[in-house]
């Protein structure tokens, strides 16, 4: 399982939760975890979200919920234009900040159950998404009790959005939290993203980690729950899914751009991961 760096969240002195806005060329937080419960609105940027033991594409206008201590990492290419900049609104709070007995109140039962289910993370969709986005943007203009009550309204709505919550990580995922492993995994990730569109070498990845190939394979699987080749294929297929939806490039062009040396290998990997062929995937999204 992945080991992540501990991130320290600095709340303002007079507030019980952190309301943070980011506007930068790209997201800079490494693979990390923190004891705070988190809700993140991606205002702009696209890329890959690593959460728990899963990889998935993320896009502008999406909202993600991360339970306490769930490791996550947004990766995106640097965006110089305003449209492509990494902009996000993030709410984070320690559950205990409201007192040990607060979540035991009968009125907070649904919210308490929602926060427990969020240990593996959620993406917010449907009607709940529009309401969540509106509330998080409204918090910009609020302060004090007004902003705090907005947070409670948000949590209450999310706790009742059964059809609007899509799980992110495996239900049984239990993160191994070790700050010392973050630097090594960061070097591995940097190598992978740098070479993703070309030939990725197991030997080079092992050297980036400062290990022999055999030791690296065991280490990587222990840290991520995946074989190195499976991880690379998931990442490449995830990236190709966006290209299939958003571009008019041919399947062959997309396959080669994502690092596959042959169409047959790309088609096989794509079907194994998504259950359909690239052409079927594109057709379904165009029809929808």
Give a quick summary of the entry.
With 288 residues, the chain is an alpha+beta fold. The protein is built from 10 helices and 12 strands.
**Share of β-strand residues:** 15-25%
Q: Based on CA inertia axes, which overall geometry fits? A: globular
Supply Rg.
Answer: 20 Å
Q: Could you name the CATH homologous superfamily of the largest domain?
A: Regulatory protein AraC
Number of strands: 12
Topology:
Blueprint: E1 3-6, E2 18-24, E3 32-33, E4 37-44, E5 47-51, E6 54-58, E7 63-66, E8 72-75, E9 86-93, H1 109-117, E10 122-124, H2 126-138, H3 144-159, E11 165-167, E12 176-177, H4 182-195, H5 202-209, H6 213-224, H7 228-246, H8 251-257, H9 263-274, H10 278-287
Parallel strand pairs: 1-3, 1-12
Antiparallel strand pairs: 2-9, 4-7, 4-9, 5-6, 5-8, 7-10, 10-11
What features would you describe in this structure?
With 288 residues, this protein is of the alpha+beta class. The chain folds into 2 domains: 3-167, Jelly Rolls; 178-287, Homeodomain-like (Arc Repressor Mutant, subunit A). Helices cover 42% and strands 19% of the residues. It has 10 helices and 12 strands. It has helices at 109-117, 126-138, 144-159, 182-195, 202-209, 213-224, 228-246, 251-257, 263-274, 278-287, and strands at 3-6, 18-24, 32-33, 37-44, 47-51, 54-58, 63-66, 72-75, 86-93, 122-124, 165-167, 176-177. The protein has a 6-stranded antiparallel beta sheet with strand order 2-9-4-7-10-11, with helices on one face. Strands 3-1-12 form a 3-stranded parallel beta sheet, with helices on one face. A hairpin with a 2-residue loop joins strand 5 (47-51) and strand 6 (54-58). The two termini are 36 Å apart.
């Amino acid at each position: 399982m992945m080991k992540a760096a501990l991130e320290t969240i600095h709340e303002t002195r007079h507030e019980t939760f952190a309301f943070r806005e980011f506007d930068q060329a790209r997201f800079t937080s490494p693979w990390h975890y923190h004891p705070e419960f988190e809700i993140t609105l991606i205002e702009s940027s696209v890329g890959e979200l690593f959460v728990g033991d899963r990889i998935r594409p993320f896009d502008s206008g999406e909202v993600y919920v991360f339970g306490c201590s769930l490791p996550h990492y947004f990766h995106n290419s640097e965006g110089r234009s305003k449209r492509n900049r990494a902009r996000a609104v993030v709410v984070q709070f320690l559950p205990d900040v409201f007192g040990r007995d607060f979540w035991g109140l009968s009125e907070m039962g649904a919210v308490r159950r929602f926060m427990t289910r969020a240990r593996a993370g959620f993406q917010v969709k449907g009607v709940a998404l529009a309401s969540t986005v509106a509330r998080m943007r409204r918090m910009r203009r609020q302060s004090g009790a007004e902003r705090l009550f907005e947070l409670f309204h948000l949590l209450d709505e999310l706790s009742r959005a059964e059809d609007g919550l899509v799980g992110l990580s495996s239900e049984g995922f239990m993160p191994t939290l070790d700050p010392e492993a973050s630097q090594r995994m960061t070097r591995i990730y940097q190598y992978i993203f740098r070479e993703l569109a070309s030939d990725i070498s197991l030997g080079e990845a092992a050297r980036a980690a400062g290990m022999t190939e055999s030791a690296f394979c065991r280490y990587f699987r222990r840290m991520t729950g995946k074989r190195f080749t499976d991880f690379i294929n998931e990442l490449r297929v995830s990236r190709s899914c966006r290209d299939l939806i958003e571009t008019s490039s041919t399947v062959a062009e997309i396959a080669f751009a994502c690092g596959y040396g042959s169409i047959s290998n790309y088609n096989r990997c794509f079907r194994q991961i998504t259950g359909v062929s690239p052409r079927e995937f594109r057709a379904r999204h165009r029809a929808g």
